[in-house]
Design brief:
Largest sheet of chain B: 9 strands, mixed
Low-confidence stretches of chain B: none
Helix content of chain A: 25-40%
CATH class of the largest domain in chain B: Alpha Beta
Number of helices of chain A: 17
Distance between the termini of chain A: 40 Å
Number of strands of chain B: 22
Radius of gyration of chain A: 31 Å
Structural class of chain B: alpha/beta
Strand content of chain A: 15-25%
Low-confidence stretches of chain A: none
Number of domains of chain B: 2
Structural class of chain A: alpha+beta
Largest interface: A-B, 29 and 29 residues
Helix content of chain B: 25-40%
CATH topology of the largest domain in chain B: TIM Barrel
Largest sheet of chain A: 22 strands, mixed
Oligomer: heterodimer
Number of helices of chain B: 13
Chain lengths: 714, 453
């Protein structure tokens, strides 16, 4: 066992109590428990013991390090030193019940995780300490302290409510002294502004509700309700749910639950001489979180679906993922045609895309004037799209074919064979594409054929309920012709308005949009084709000194591919063959990789004149610390800050080399009174002959950064 | 007040019995009094006659149509504007704005394209005669050089090594596509293996990079099946090179040759009804390529050097009737102020000539002569024309291709070329020649100078 493992597992156990993942947070919490040194020692012992015990029994080392097993032991230790007068048998029972608590922890944690996909929270601690209370009843091996809450150290002249707040924060960790609460609050404030705001909200609301109850109840339950509300507010407001103004609303609901359940549990438990402890928190949070999993839509109150961090980190991470379409990266569906087509009917269309069939698309071809046919348009052949190849939008297996329906004359429909000639492709991930109204006898594939993306599966026709030739495409969840449609976006496509093109990813084209697939440019594609083990070297000048930054392309255990720079920054990326995009950046806000990350956050391998695209950026990559802190405070209400990147691509008028300049203007906006932060930076990324050549940053026309490739092994 | 009826000269036509035409009556003469909504009279009163007129709108529309037709059938399409068809700067610029590359066949055309700002990589350099100097330029600029014969290949190998630059080349292939005459004077033969030998020779040379294959199967091709065969053979070769030499070529270039709406002298029926459409050509070509079951990402860029079919319809020649006369056999002859020196394509086509106003419904079999003192100066033989008085204007249509490059300064000076812009404005894109312009290149040895003649 290394010293690092020992220290890490100890500190993370402390940090876990407040949903933190920072070692320094654990260290400060540890310090808070030492305000009463005896408590501190017992608690620390309990943590170390639990972790060593887990190690000895060969539990998952990663989980031990992260404090999963230590924090319930920690609470047991804290509870023993909180409730009981120490005597020789104190240590014996602490020892025994730490072991009992450990097994309960592992069992409950696993049961909740496997059975319900829920965290175990501090339920194991509550059960274990109840067991000891029941064990100790009537026998009184240990005696409960006569006064659990007093005295407090230092001349603290605080208003009662403030005192109560800090006291409750300390009591969460079963610390008697108000000073522990102060230390913990400061720790929270440094760790997360959102968490600090949430703890105050939770406390204040429960304090208000409690003040409406009879005085006797207040005396008995204010503390319990307070610390339960604080930790519930943190859990629901930002640590287990992505923070937003809706998560703040859930805090209010949660707090009402806390007060109600505190009273219920008090009425149940006080006759049997058990304390309520954090049972209301465990009950409320688990109940709400579990129930929220069963909603039909997840637009609001999004449960954490990744490794938790501070609430602001959760917020930015989620915002980044949502705005950057990552959840669709496993399927990259193309449009089913060559060249530019028009969406003649989109989702919720006015003709036939209604109710169960609303998530469907009709496509036709139009000319410059917007006509879909030449001449009179009375014959099928006049229609531009008639007879054009229709392509498989994604690889899959052809599972159904109708090929013998006659094409209707213009203006007539065949309501008996509604869908006309149809091909259904099974993409193997429970997603099916159905393409209809194809030309009679035009389907070159057979049932059972495996098709690749882009393979011709038929020709555009006018069969079925189709008065004019068009392609009807819908995604569905089964293999039936005419099944209910399923909402699913296309991977990447270009949209044209006059002579301007915009890139759209994981989006749904709208009615009348003129759209086309990306035509992959091999020069751009090669430049961003970072392969495992690739090494690149860049040179830049900082304060008159030349610096060389080296990159290496690596892959981590979760198969995320990333670039690591010689100054310890990492940037994870994804390349789906049509678009390169970064998914995250960790490191200092400087250096070549940092600037490259911002200048190439998203790059389609496609060149068109007047092609632009947009991306959003997390604030913390662009701004200084005060602004980030200010922004953190405001996330729960209405985030007034945002950063947007506007990309463009130019071809260099260079004879021999094929070069492109990818421009990105990143604008940092503050709404209303915050507009003083508005600023803008221009990146120019040069790509030539299959390589990243240089990164250039300008602010207000002045060059701020320039780095160029000096060597790249690809 | 009742307006006075216009006087129309009477016509006496011979009754031809027993010579009925199974296609019925000849189509009625159409009047053309405006181009792109601009009155022909207004154009003529401003610029005089003869006058070439080019419609920007027509060029763009036709090019966009052609691009739409091909790009909705094939994923990667690139047009390259055939300079020899019409290399007026303004015309080329419209095509380049419509994303066309430049296809040039001489050093002069090459320089013209470069002068317009076309990047070397967007130039296709064809033709059997490329000088050492021209090749040097093209290699340096990274232009795509299409090799016509072995001697040229050796020259390129030599030059690229001497200047140590990589030459981007494609091989011009000729093949049997079932159409005669067989065009085997250009390029390397497909069937006898000459093409494959040349490819091997290119692959072993260090500074020459084979990037594509090129063929040009003929001109004014009415058979789309010929294109299917050509596309199929080219793709087959492309695929062989891929599998045999592990070389991924960037493109196959199917050249030009699409027919325009002009009717050849040898054609009996009017071309507009029988000439294949872009759709027909595109269907044939893509069918030929798709025969080989390449995966979507393996498909090469398809380059088309269409010239005539894109620009013919956008060009008009406005001419004035300078005389009406009767030939010895009784046929009517109309003399225009524009001759075959301006309208070279008269030798190929039965040009469509329209009056600018209605002269009544009777027409007469006529022959239209130009203003040259030459017997060959026949603009159009055997056309039904109404009686057009001297001084009135006719519009000769579909003259955008080859005339403004093959015209001759003969006897008289070449006229202005005017472009009708999309907004209806008239812009002179080539001024009329003047005596000074012609004379400036001439030098008279001093002993020949005339004094006080």
């Amino acid at each position: 066992m290394t010293l690092k493992f020992f220290i890490d597992s100890t500190l993370y156990s402390y940090a876990q109590i407040y949903f933190s993942n920072r070692k320094w947070f654990g260290l400060l919490t540890l310090a808070a428990t030492f305000i009463v040194p005896f408590n501190g020692i017992i608690t620390l012992f309990a943590v170390i013991f639990s972790n060593l015990f887990a190690l000895l029994l060969q539990y998952d080392k990663t989980k031990i390090t992260l404090g999963f097993y230590g924090f319930n032991g920690l609470l047991i230790g804290a509870a023993f030193s909180f409730f009981y007068v120490p005597n020789p048998s104190f240590y014996l029972f602490l020892f025994i019940f730490l072991i009992i608590a450990f097994f309960i922890t592992t069992a409950i944690e696993n049961y909740f995780a496997v059975g319900f996909n829920l965290p175990g929270l501090s339920l194991p601690f509550v059960l274990s300490i109840f067991l000891f209370f029941i064990f100790n009843q009537n026998l009184n091996f240990l005696t409960v302290k006569s006064n659990l809450l007093l005295p407090d150290s230092g001349p603290m002249q605080l208003p009662y409510s403030v005192f109560l707040f800090f006291k409750s924060l300390g009591l969460l960790l079963l610390q008697q002294d108000v000073l522990s609460g102060v230390v913990i609050f400061i720790t929270i404030l440094i760790f997360s502004r959102i968490m600090a705001v949430l703890s105050i909200f939770g406390f204040a609301f429960s304090y208000f509700i409690m003040s409406l109850f009879p005085e006797q109840l207040q005396t008995n339950l204010t503390f319990t309700a307070s610390f339960n509300s604080i930790i519930t507010a943190i859990a629901l407001g930002g640590s287990l749910i992505i923070p937003s103004n809706k998560s703040l609303f859930s805090v209010f609901v949660g707090t009402i639950f806390i007060v109600v359940f505190t009273i219920i549990f008090y009425n149940v438990l006080s006759p049997v001489a058990l304390p309520v402890l954090v049972l209301p928190f465990n009950f409320t949070v688990l109940l709400l979180i579990y129930s929220l999993k069963f909603r039909a839509k997840f637009a609001d109150l999004i449960l954490l679906y990744f490794k938790p961090g501070a609430p602001e980190e959760n917020f930015y991470y989620h915002q980044n993922r949502v705005s950057r379409f990552e959840r669709y990266k496993f399927l990259n569906i193309d449009l089913p045609f060559h060249g530019e087509w028009k969406v003649s009917q989109g989702i919720d269309g006015k003709h036939t895309h209604k109710e169960d069939w609303k998530y469907a698309f009709d496509f036709i071809v139009t000319d410059e004037k917007g006509n879909s046919a030449k001449g009179s348009g009375k014959s099928l052949k006049d229609h531009y799209c008639y007879g054009l190849p229709v392509l498989a939008p994604l690889k899959g297996k052809v599972i159904k074919i109708i090929d013998n329906v006659k094409d209707n004359p213009i203006g007539e429909v065949n309501l008996e064979q509604n869908w006309g000639n149809t091909v259904i492709i099974d993409h193997g991930v429970n997603l099916f594409t159905s393409i209809s109204h194809l030309k009679k006898d035009s389907i070159p594939v057979k049932k059972g054929d495996e098709v690749e993306r882009g393979d011709v599966i038929g020709l555009c026709g006018n069969s079925g309920r189709s008065p004019e030739p068009h392609i009807h495409l819908q995604f569905q969840l089964n293999n039936k012709v005419g099944a209910k449609t399923h909402k699913f976006p296309f991977g990447h496509f270009l949209k044209r308005i006059d002579d301007r093109y915009t890139l759209h990813s994981a989006e749904f084209p709208n009615e009348n949009n003129l759209i086309q697939n990306l035509e992959v440019n091999s020069i751009l594609k090669d430049a961003f084709d970072f392969k495992l083990g690739d090494k690149l070297k860049f040179r830049y000048v900082k304060k008159g000194k030349e610096i060389v930054e080296e990159w290496e392309v690596k892959v981590d255990l979760t198969n995320t591919i990333y670039i690591e720079s010689s100054n310890n920054a990492t940037a994870s990326f994804y390349n789906d063959g049509e678009v390169f995009y970064f998914t995250s950046y960790v490191g200092e806000n400087e250096g070549v990789l940092y600037h490259f990350y911002l200048s190439a956050a998203q790059v389609p391998f496609c060149f068109k004149e007047n092609l632009t695209w947009q991306d959003s950026f997390p604030l913390f990559l662009l701004s200084n610390i005060p602004l980030r802190v200010l922004s953190d405070f405001l996330i729960l209400f209405h985030n007034p800050f945002y950063a947007k990147g506007e990309f463009s691509i130019l071809e260099e008028k260079d004879d021999h080399l094929s070069s492109f300049i990818i421009g990105n203007t990143i604008t940092l906006y503050g709404k209303g009174i915050f507009n003083f932060i508005n600023s803008r930076r221009n990146y120019k990324l040069k790509v030539s002959n299959g390589k990243i050549k240089s990164v250039h940053l300008f602010e207000e026309g002045k060059e701020k950064f320039f780095a160029e490739l000096i060597n790249g092994e690809k | 007040m009742e307006t006075k009826k216009k006087y129309v000269r009477p016509i006496i036509s011979k009754q031809q019995t027993g010579m009925m035409n199974k296609f019925g009556k000849a189509p009625l003469m159409t009047v053309m009094n405006s181009i792109d909504n601009v009155q022909v009279d207004a154009i003529v009163s401003k610029f005089g006659t003869p006058l070439f007129v080019i419609s920007e709108n027509r060029i763009r529309t036709i090019q966009k149509d052609a691009l739409r037709v091909f790009s909705t059938r094939y994923p990667k399409v690139q047009f390259a504007w055939s300079y020899k068809t019409n290399y007026l700067d303004a015309v080329c610029s419209v095509f380049h704005q419509e994303k066309s590359w430049a296809e040039v066949v001489s050093e002069f055309e090459y320089d013209k394209a470069k002068r317009l700002g076309v990047a070397g990589k967007n130039i296709i350099f064809n033709g059997p005669d490329k000088s050492v100097e021209a090749l040097k330029k093209a290699i340096n600029d990274g232009a795509n050089i299409h090799i016509d014969h072995y001697d040229e290949l050796y020259r390129i190998v030599e030059i690229s090594e001497a200047i140590n630059r990589t030459a981007r080349v494609a091989l011009r292939i000729n093949m049997d596509i079932g159409v005669y005459p067989k065009w085997d004077r250009f390029g390397f033969n497909y069937e006898n293996g000459e093409a494959l030998d040349a490819i091997k020779r290119i692959i072993i040379s260090k500074n020459v990079k084979l990037v594509g294959l090129h063929t040009h199967i003929g001109t004014y091709m009415l058979s789309t099946n010929a294109y299917r065969i050509a596309a199929s053979k080219m793709t087959s070769l492309y695929k062989n090179i891929k599998s045999e030499f592990e070389l991924n070529l960037e493109y196959i270039d199917l050249g030009g040759g699409f027919a325009s709406k002009n009717t050849l002298h040898a054609q009996y029926l009017d071309a507009s009804g029988i000439v294949p459409t872009f759709e027909d050509y595109a269907d044939a070509i893509t069918a030929g390529i798709f025969e080989h079951n390449l995966k979507a990402h393996e498909l090469p860029l398809l380059i088309l050097e269409t010239g005539r079919a894109l620009v013919d319809e956008a060009g008009y020649l406005l001419a004035r009737v300078i005389a009406n006369k009767r030939l010895s056999n009784g046929r009517r002859a109309v003399v225009l102020d524009a001759g075959v020196n301006l309208l070279f394509t008269s030798f190929w086509y039965k040009h469509k000539i329209s009056p600018t106003q209605f002269y009544g419904e009777y027409s007469e079999d006529s022959v239209v002569y130009g203003n040259l003192c030459m017997n060959i100066d026949v603009i159009r033989d055997g056309i039904q024309l109404p009686p057009i008085p001297v001084g009135d204007i006719v519009v000769i249509q579909n003259v955008g291709a080859y005339n403004m490059t093959q015209w001759m300064q003969f006897i008289s000076l070449r006229p202005k070329v005017v472009m009708i812009m999309e907004d209806g404005a008239l812009e002179v894109i080539r001024d009329n020649e003047t005596l000074e312009y012609i004379a400036q290149l001439e030098k008279v040895p001093s002993k020949l100078k005339l004094k006080g003649y």
